[in-house]
């Protein structure tokens, strides 16, 4: 082996290596797909592949593989050029020294260009994949009201926002790093083992001569170090999984305090919230100390192995150098090759901490997507949409355990009718309203139908962040609706007309009564065929409540109204009464 041969055969070497790497990668991927790990991985990436051009994916992967192989080849050539550089120094050949110095300088320039292109292609691959995965997860989460149905799940996935944003992003970067590291390690192991095989001779251990013994000793040293490292770091898998969960729980608790600041202030609940936050934070700290204790042992061991590896090759080759069997260049090439081989074989040992985090993210993403699949496979009987009336015949409702909580309800509402639902707390009023509106996540009994142009308004209407105009017109009302200002004045929100284009957190700024008045603005602008009012006037005084009901009855005389309310004053605006319990 010499530098000229290695340089001349580099192109053919890359093509051959690319073929074998691609073939082995495909076979390995197929074999892994039959394992539990592979099934989880496939569940996450399969929708992304289905949405993409498979030829573009294959082309991008082949480019990344080629760049990895180029990196290995550059490192191999680097050892030969430095061999020539140091050998020319030993032989005091100035012309040869400057020749190899120039070649090494050219190789450095090539490495810089390669590094820039490599980073660019990696980022392109990760960004494109993240776009696909994020779109898939968001679509699945929002489809069929899964984001709402998950609230009722017995095994609710924790910190869904973290899984969609952080876990997905770091899962992709971790996958790319893992695949790149494995390919680089395997190819580097083969290449630098061949170099060390040529450089090593007889290795004498306890007066026993071992041909090529340096290579065997290096392999034994690294394998033992890797096995011990894995044994020391194994508990980190569970600890890092808990780390993500505890951090997410603590962050969510902080957000709840922010979002419910007014209620907490009225209750003087600071002490209780402080206690709850301390409890969540203590779980984070306790888990972190467990990680620190485990990492002290792992990092100490890895540091020791790394330091020993810096001097070990010189000690192994020193007898042959002093015997005149190898040159100074051979010694330097031995050190370089040993360090590259050490890095290659130690990939799993050094990557182990990251792999524990990677496995935790894989499990979290798999759990989230698997739960969405479960929800999609649940058959729920919803009312027939786009009828001209609201009809229930022998209607009933089941809970998540298939227990019947309401049954034998019969209602027939035609154009202009209004139904008031009353009953004790917990009697199932809101549940019934959700079932008629088609947003109840569990099964129902009997027959039901309703108009398709419907509007459901909860007790505390939702106001997204942004301008007041956008918040009132949520989700799909025209922000330039010609009746917007008039509707606001009719619903006694005239003082906010001048603030329509002001961006703020209107959910917090508006009082509960003002939020409920916004709900009636939406009714006037949407003009639905049927509106569901779940105690939507509970925060209003009776005169304002009467004024708003009277206004929508006059403006929208054909609209069907289904209301939940406890006040007897609501009876005058409804021609039908249903009492539960």
UniProtKB/TrEMBL annotation:
Residues 390-581 form the ABC transporter domain. The keyword tRNA-binding does not apply. Keywords: ATP-binding, Membrane, Nucleotide-binding, Transmembrane, Transmembrane helix, Transport. SMART domains: AAA (SM00382). GO terms for molecular function: ABC-type transporter activity; ATP binding; ATP hydrolysis activity. One of its GO terms (cellular component) is plasma membrane. Pfam families: ABC_membrane_2 (PF06472), ABC_tran (PF00005). Its main location: membrane. Residues 58-357 form the ABC transmembrane type-1 domain. This is ABC transporter ATP-binding protein.
């Amino acid at each position: 082996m010499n530098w000229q041969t290695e340089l001349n055969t580099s192109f053919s070497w890359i093509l051959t290596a690319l073929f074998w790497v691609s073939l082995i990668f495909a076979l390995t991927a197929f074999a892994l797909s039959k394992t539990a790990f592979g099934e989880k991985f496939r569940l996450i990436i399969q929708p992304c592949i289905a949405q993409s051009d498979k030829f573009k994916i294959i082309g991008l992967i082949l480019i990344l593989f080629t760049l990895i192989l180029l990196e290995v080849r550059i490192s191999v050539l680097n050892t030969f050029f430095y061999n020539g550089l140091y050998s020319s120094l030993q032989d005091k050949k100035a012309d040869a020294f400057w020749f190899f110095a120039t070649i090494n300088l050219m190789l450095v320039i090539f490495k810089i260009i390669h590094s820039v292109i490599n980073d660019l292609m990696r980022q392109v691959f990760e960004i494109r994949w993240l776009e696909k995965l994020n779109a898939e997860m968001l679509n699945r989460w929002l489809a069929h009201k899964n984001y709402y149905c998950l609230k009722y799940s017995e095994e609710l996935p924790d910190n869904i926002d973290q899984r969609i944003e952080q876990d997905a992003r770091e899962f992709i970067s971790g996958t790319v790093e893992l695949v790149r590291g494995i390919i680089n390690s395997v190819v580097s192991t083969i290449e630098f083992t061949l170099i060390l095989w040529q450089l090593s001779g007889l290795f004498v251990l306890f007066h026993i001569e071992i041909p090529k013994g340096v290579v065997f000793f290096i392999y034994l040293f690294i394998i033992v170090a890797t096995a011990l490292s894995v044994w020391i770091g194994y508990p980190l898998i569970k600890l890092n999984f808990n780390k993500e969960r505890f951090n997410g729980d603590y962050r969510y608790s902080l957000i709840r305090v922010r979002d419910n600041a007014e209620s907490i202030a009225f209750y003087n609940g600071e002490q209780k919230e402080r206690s709850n936050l301390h409890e969540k934070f203590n779980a984070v700290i306790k888990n972190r100390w467990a990680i620190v204790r485990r990492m002290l042992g792992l990092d100490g061991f890895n540091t020791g192995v790394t330091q020993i590896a810096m001097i070990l090759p010189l000690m192994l080759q020193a007898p042959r150098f002093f015997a005149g069997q190898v040159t100074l260049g051979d010694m330097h090439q031995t050190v370089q090759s040993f360090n590259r081989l050490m890095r290659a074989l130690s990939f799993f040992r050094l990557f182990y901490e990251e792999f524990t985090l990677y496995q935790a993210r894989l499990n979290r993403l798999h759990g989230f997507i698997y739960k969405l699949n479960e929800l999609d496979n649940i058959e729920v009987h919803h009312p027939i949409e786009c009828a001209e009336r609201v009809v229930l015949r022998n209607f009933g409702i089941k809970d998540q355990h298939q227990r019947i909580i309401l049954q034998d309800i019969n209602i027939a509402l035609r154009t202009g009718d209004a139904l008031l639902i009353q009953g004790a707390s917990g009697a199932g009023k809101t549940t019934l309203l959700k079932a008629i509106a088609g947003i109840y996540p569990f099964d129902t009994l009997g027959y039901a139908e309703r108009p398709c142009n419907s509007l459901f308004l909860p007790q505390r209407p939702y106001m997204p962040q942004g301008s007041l105009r956008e918040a009132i017109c949520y989700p799909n009302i025209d922000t330039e609706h010609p009746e917007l200002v008039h509707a606001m004045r009719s619903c006694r929100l005239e003082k906010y007309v001048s603030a329509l284009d002001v961006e703020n957190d209107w959910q917090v700024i508006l009082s509960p009564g003002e939020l409920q008045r916004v709900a009636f603005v939406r009714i006037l602008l949407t003009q639905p065929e049927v509106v569901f009012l779940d105690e939507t006037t509970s925060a209003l005084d009776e005169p304002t409540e009467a004024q708003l009901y009277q206004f929508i009855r006059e403006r929208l005389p054909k609209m069907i109204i289904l209301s939940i309310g406890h006040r007897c004053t609501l009876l005058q605006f409804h021609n039908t009464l249903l009492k539960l319990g």
